[in-house]
Amino acid sequence: MSIEQLPDRARVDAFDKVRGTTKYAADFQRPGMLHAVLVPSLIAKGKVVRVDTAAALAVPGVLRVLTPEDFPEPNPDFEAPTAEDEEEEDGEGYAVPSTVVNMIAYRGQPIAVVIAETLDAAVEGAEKVTGQYQEEPFSVVMESPGAQREPIDEAVVAGNAEEAFGRASVIVEETYVSPTQHHNPLELLGAMAVFEDGRLTIYDTTQHTMGVKNAIAASLWIDPARIDVKSTSVGGGFGQKAHAYGYSVIAAHAAIQIGRPVRIVIPRGHIFHIASYRPRSRHHVRLGADSSGRMIAAHYVAEHENSREGGLSPAEYHEGTPRLYDIANYHGGGIQVRLDRQDAGYMRCPFPHQACFAFESAVDELAHKIGMDPVALRLNNDGQTDPLSGKPYSSRFVTECITEGARRFGWSRRSHAPGSMTAPNGAQVGWGMALGNYPSPMSPAIATLRIGANGRTRITVSGHEMGQGIKTTIANTLLQGLDVDPNGLEVVIGDTSAAPQHQTGASCGTAGCVPATLKAVRRMQAALQELMDGRSVPGNIHRQLATIRRPYLQVEVSEVAPGQGAEAIEYLRVSGDGAAGPEYPEFTSMSWIAHFVEVRVEPTTRRIRMPRCVSVVDCGRVISPRTARSQVHGGVVWAFSAALREATEIDPRYGGYLNCDLAEYLIAVNADIGEIEVGFVDKPDPLANSAGLKSLGEVVMAGASAAIANAIFHATGKRLRSMPFRIEDLL
Asked: 62 and 195: one domain?
């Protein structure tokens, strides 16, 4: 089967979403369903001395108020499945999430949960629960006196950066800041739990159903074989839903204790306080180049905020930046700043978004200092070998991304001097560009494909649909290779009762499920050929099976990443993890992108607008052109929002978040976004996997904020190094 030419099919879930029939976690209901509402702590750190539940229990419809004493201690004998080479990190671990607590580590932690017949009764009951606290001093921002600075254990090193700086003709050194940000997916966090006949079923808004399954098993002493977790469709995740939260355990425990289905949905204001977020970070970048514009040295230290125990490591900022260019001498360090807040976590394009903003801003500053065109400087520093591993890239078409983007954008018409371009209305015009990259990992996956004589086709595979279009890529791959009725096709993902589900994030979802689907298609082709044994039967596969009186034909396959063995599949079955990459035994696999942005700065208000953007991506083979373009559009909008709008405001006096709603947490809207032109190199990567694809969802955001910052400098001559960029920064 060839996948060189894939049609631009419509999304398979489009009609259901338009008609409002798509079911999310909160849409599932059962007769007798109860509602649960959490009671948040009102202090940032300390101890709960007493919880008064009497007034809550007096509310009509309230059945129970659960406190920490109602929950068992986690099973000490439950071993969370963890890769041998991967430490369990509190910030991303899923074995034992906290539920309701007596010891408060951050503001908003639940101290009780109210269970009621109606949502109104549960809300009223939660408002009547009161707590008495013994408060402790706390630190919630990086500048707080009690913030604990913790350097990473080992630096990321290639060559000898300090020696190379001694040979540099031009050096730039600056600090760049990225703010705290929250994901704000459209669908709120929530779950519905059903306990029947000794079996627990959880309908959860999660990117990691296997993680939720193991979290509940460990927390409630339940055999994982008795737990099914279903995430049929997620209304946006962006990394926030990539690990288990305590609310899933709470819903499960309440359903078991009371014997009725229980649903819990977390309000957005409370999500701000208990869910993961993008941490505020500072990036100290030093670059050195010779007189020809070759970058010969880089020193980069990233520091970010986290909880006291969170495991999100600042070393990950160096997974992409050393690979942007052919810089032989690189030194990367990092610092955790420990605070009394919840765990920081992955948010769309984690690490490369902030890292590329800093690094690509510094590269632009270097180009300006040298007097070299930013495009020419970047083309002058392209390379085909990973400086960290010394291995070749599986594919790298950075030069093609840059040259095609520059052609489409009309970069040759750009004047060099900052502040030299104006619009007819007097607005300052700036043209900027930047590169971005993101690792291209791959998850092991299992696929079962069943084609029936009745016109139905069902494929179950590892993965989660959270709006990125993964069901469409699966369908596109299957329909390209098999003559089946597309109207009878059912794609089942995100359901642990159907197949082991890998944690879908970090752009490894499509890279896992599509190669597995492709393998299933090829296995089915071979099985059909064997079944027909040379017979010629007219019609599609359904008709052929009906003609020979075969009710169905089924195949099951598994697929692993390059260098992985059968143990990866076994690890997937118990954990839902096991992704490999971007460094594989023989090569390093990354996706690449070049962004070209025009901004206009109004002469009086100093408001910044972005009328157009051109983004060209090297992501290997494009499996679903329609969803791929949508991913790029979404990534650019995210980057615009991050650069010009979004920042979570923290109150250092009380430890809470001040703008925890969509009225005051500013995000980009349609009126903010101009024309976004998308291009793809669309050359298969034969080394990465059998489908020739590489990651896309994350890379589209990398570098875009830097391109905006660089365009603002070109428009105004003022370099902005701290996001978000606001009007007052240009006054």
From this structure: yes
315, part of any domain: no
Interatomic CA distance for residues 647 and 723, integer angstroms: 8
Across the range 302-331, mean pLDDT stands at 97
Check which CATH number belongs to the domain holding 106 and give it: 3.90.1170.50
Q: Which residue has the tokens 């030419």?
A: 5
Tally Cβ neighbours within 10 Å of residue 328: 18
Q: Which tokens is 216 given? A: 């509940």
544 and 602 together in one domain: no
The backbone torsions φ and ψ at residue 726, rounded to the nearest 5 degrees and listed phi first, read -115, 165
* Sequence letter at residue 352: P
CA angle 200, 202, 207 (to 5 degrees): 140
699 and 603 in a common domain: yes
CA 667, distance to chain mean position in Å, is 18
CATH of the domain at 428: 3.30.365.10
- Together in a domain, 383 and 260: no
Distance from C-alpha of 436 to C-alpha of 325, rounded to nearest angstrom: 10
Instruction: Give the whole-angstrom CA distance, residue 302 versus residue 322.
Output: 13
Q: Which residue range forms the structural domain that includes residue 125? A: 25-136+189-265
Beta pairing, strands 46-52 & 103-104: antiparallel
What is the distance between the alpha carbons of residues 711 and 610, in angstroms, rounded to a whole number?
10
pTM, rounded to two decimals: 0.95
Does residue 159 contact residue 279 with C-beta atoms inside 8 Å?
Answer: no
Residue 336: inside a domain, yes or no?
A: no
Confidence of residue 555 (pLDDT cuts 50, 70, 90): very high
